[in-house]
Amino acid sequence: MIRYLGKRIIFMLISLFLIVTATFFIMKAVPGGPFTSEKNVPDEIKAALEAKYKLNLPLHEQYFNYLKGVATWDLGPSFTEKSSTVNDMINRGFPVSAHLGAQSLLLAVFGGIILGVIAALKHNKWQDYSAMVIAVLGLSVPGFILASFYQYFFSIKWGLLPIAKWEGFEYTILPSLALAASPMAFIARLTRSNMIEVLGQDYIKTAKAKGLHTFTITVKHAIRNALLPVITYLGPLIANILTGAFVIERIFGVPGLGREFVLSITNRDYTVIMGTTVFYSIILVVMILIVDVAYTLVDPRIKLADAGRE
Amino acid sequence: MKKNIFALVSSVAVLGTALAGCAGQQASQPAAQQPANNTQTQTPAAPAPAEKKPQVLRMNLHSEPPTGDPGLAEDTTSGAVILATFDGLTRIGADEKPHEAAAESYTVSDDKLTYTFKIRDHKWSNGDPVTAKDFEFAWKRALDPKTASNYAYQLYYIKNGEKANKGEAKLDDVGVKALDDKTLEVKLENPTPFFLELLAFRTYFPVNQKVVEGNEKWAAEAKTHVGNGPFKIESWEHKSKLVLVKNDNYWDKDNVKLDKIEFSMVEDENTELSMFENGELDWAGSPMSSLPTDAIPALKDSGKMVTKPIAGTYWYKFNTEKPPFNNVKIRKAFTYSIDRQGLIDNILQTGQIPATGAVPPSMVLNPNGYFKDKDLETAKTLLDEGMKELGITKLPAITLSYNTSEGHKKIAEAIQDQWKKNLGVDVKLENKEWKVYLEDLHEGNFQIGRMGWLGDFNDPINFLELYKDKMGGNNDTRWENPKFKELLNQSALESDLDKRKKILADAEQILMDDMPIMPIYFYTQSWVQNPSVKGVQMTGLGDVDWKSAYIE
Fold first, then answer.
1. Which pTM value belongs to this model?
2. Which end of chain A is more exposed for a tag (fewer CB within 10 A), N or C?
3. How far is C-alpha A31 from the chain's CA centre?
4. What domain of life is recorded for the organism (chain A) (predicted)?
5. How many CB atoms lie within 10 A of CB B87?
């Protein structure tokens, strides 16, 4: 187990290194730079700016400086937000995005599993159909339309919840709902199809024959097995949802991290591009590792070992 | 497909918003008035309780201001916050003219090269006195190459300013000197008739030397930000909320009526408009943000939308080195043949002004324009003549480039269609991501490309000097004319205002005779506002000043 984890962590570091390297060089290869602007500044000012941000150094030196920065978690100043460093931006934005993401995640996981289980238990009955209609809608209606729809009904028409901004719990409800819709639908469908498969297996029939209550069968025997694919999906989902969703954050005026991913690229804000990418990658690889460990908890048949597994 | 759905849904939503908004506002207004009414009934003797109600303006900043530092700011959001929290030697008044602000008075030498300012007795928001040294420090700091200020070139009018920024002269040689705590002497390179207006621009604002030297990040937090303007920053939750309160140390505080300005930072224009319709904001649209394009027709019909021209020109640039636009007649044919008024009425819909010259109306040199809009006859003749001169019977493939954006796309498509109809020319459209587009334009990788220009101060030189040098940073057209250059150089030395205006008008005439650019329209700003908000000053440059704003 420990050997396995150690090996995984080394692979994680290697993949992070590859991500940093690839992002760095691809980013530099894109035309335009942070100081390309509509009002072209005189050459001497451009030179001064480049000197200030050390963009005048040869590429390989910039690259090594950057690697050093990542290793010490000093991600450098932002080019666009002159008064902030990338660390500041992540420290400010991540808690907000994580808060919103955690709420949506809870909604998505519990809502999705419940919908999926109900649909599977009532296979081909109206409960199944209505749960799946919700799921199809959630998957196919884009988040921004759903968000505008919520805003229109819950805030403007009924005046129940604030339209936008981020100042307290009531401000988090609509964005969480909007953000949770698509993963909830996905989880519901995943759970349903797996549940149907599991429910048809011999051991469930045996349990039924023993006279166990449907509730006990579902909770104790079926759900655990049906959840494995859901857990696989959860790894990337958590990383995604915790680090912010650009569109939802934009529509609801949430001061999260999601916007930095997108805007930094438009602005060629090199340090922010790198910082957010590295940050996201770290969360992603850690989540994938946690998912692998989580398999063993849910399904005792799976054991972690680096060799010997069939 | 996605976009169509979005447009449909959002226009339905906006329509609904507009309808619901009417009801919403009616509902919210009595509620807002209620407290005032209550106090009136309880204590009828109290003198005008309505005045006691705190004056709070609720605005949306659209995005986080990147900095509160006047020396480093380069965007309008930062600019608006800085204008509210700082005061330059002059400030643009309601008459759009510069008035003494941090300077109490000034004298100008006969050669118009030396200005001596008497600094008003006033204080920074932290209580320190504002001295002439703060100005000297601020200007030299912006010119210091180490500061890497993007707008340092605004200070090039000061003697040795440009040289100091290039590292060719020492900062000590720059022509600004605090003779004592209250006297500032400024020496200029050339007589600069718009110098007093420049002083109202943020790069010329003072900064508190002690504060800046003590903390590199002073301009990023409410706690450490110090200004000398009508307001000060009370709190700044990054990317979320910024609150300005009246600065009690401001010299002209008696004329500042607002107690507080609360800024949200919502980026989405539709959300912003919904919040306005719902009574959560007092303002939506320009200058901090813009109105959603789909909502404009409805807002316009409702009569709530306000539109004001600003000093900016939207134009297409020709690459004058690549055929067929190396021929002036062909350039002219393309320029004359489009219907600007039609474009504005049908596509833009926010009262833009057709541009038949380079310089916008607020600083206009020739009010009649230099050519006729939609002059089809002349255009056709010129096209034929131009093609003959080039010795071709068929125009080569022509591509019109623009940066990816719904608005630019609509304009480009309309103009493409007009060229097809009016000149029988097929033009291809091409869009590119913003920074890639800029790079291509600066490198001459285009035939016709869109661009816009907004003035930094109210003088035609803003628009003319772009085309002074062939490889000048913002020319892009590769056009150069020695006569034009000569006239601009003359204008810098001319201290007689009327003569200078004549010189500049001649220069614009040359620009329009050679037509390296095709002016399309002069920008306007459109917004909706709470009718009880008064006195918000929108300058002709597109800046906003809340100094004398109040709520009725």
1. 0.85
2. C
3. 29
4. Bacteria
5. 26
